[in-house]
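Quick one, T. Sequence first:
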Amino acid sequence: MAEKALLDRSQVKKAVQALQAFLKNKASGEAPFLDETQHISLLFTLWKIPKEAQTIRIPLPHGQRSDTEEICLFTRDEPNMTSEQTQRFYKKLLQERGVKGISEIIPYKVLKTEYKPYEAKRRLLGNFDLFISDDRIRRLLPSHLGKHFYKSKKEPLCVNLQSKHLARDIERVIQGTSLKVTNKGCCCMARVAHSGMTADEVTENIEAAVQTVVTKLRMKGPVIKLIHIKSQTSVALPVYTSDLGHLSVLESKQAQTPKDKESASTKTKKNKTEDKEQADATAEGKRKVKKVKKNKAAAEEEEEITQLVPIETPVKKPKLEKASKKKKLEKAPKPAALKKGTKAQSKLIKKTDSKVKRKVPKVK
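Structure tokens:
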């Protein structure tokens, strides 16, 4: 809460005036015929990296968007209506509730079909400066929009289209801002104003933004270290620097943490030694039990096993007589020449018999 009191309004106004003068000189020198407004942002530097990521919605007393910015609204598909009918339905609803500034309405069905290709998604991203979505379809949008919407920090902001105060809610979302605190670094930035606003309006927006950030940050102790104000093309100008007393508080906390760590380490060491002793005792007990079991098993085996006496086996005599008888019974092999001769003689006899038969004359 110390940042509220230490944020000097006069110092903030001087920084804003210096930034506006720089932007005017640059615009007159480079592009005198273009009246392009530049974004003015607040750069927060924290004392330490937060443990969890957080998104903080910041309402602003003065609108930080110009009238020339294009705003797109994603709506759900109404039952028993085509995409054109849903567009007409929501246009009529916004006119009746007095909502202004929304340039195009895209139903969910049109987003799925017409903006499915990669080039169509990139074209949609470049055509609009801000995207708003019905809170009933916010979980369905990331898979159809793609990663480029989230890399360029143009993800749709949710609005309840069934609210009774629809105009007020949409105006807060459009003219307000948001700060994304990540757990990957100690710096974060939020858009607060544009170069077309007066110095008093910019200072009031800066004060409101700092108050909401200090109250909504989920961190203990001193939170903010530095606050700078900058535009898209300028150098960061300091608006707030933390007191060195915060540094002493942080050092004391860091000095306390090693003692806690040492006590915790000693406790863990004691627990480890006790666990080791218990494990050793249990291991020794198991070993003793195993030895006793082994001794009992050996004694039982000695009692059960009897001495074996070798048995004399009679020597078998060689069977010479049987072998001689078998040899006698075997027939001597006939010579190959005799076999061939007999075969040839039998063939000749058969041929002669056939010839003789043919030469016998028939008796009339």
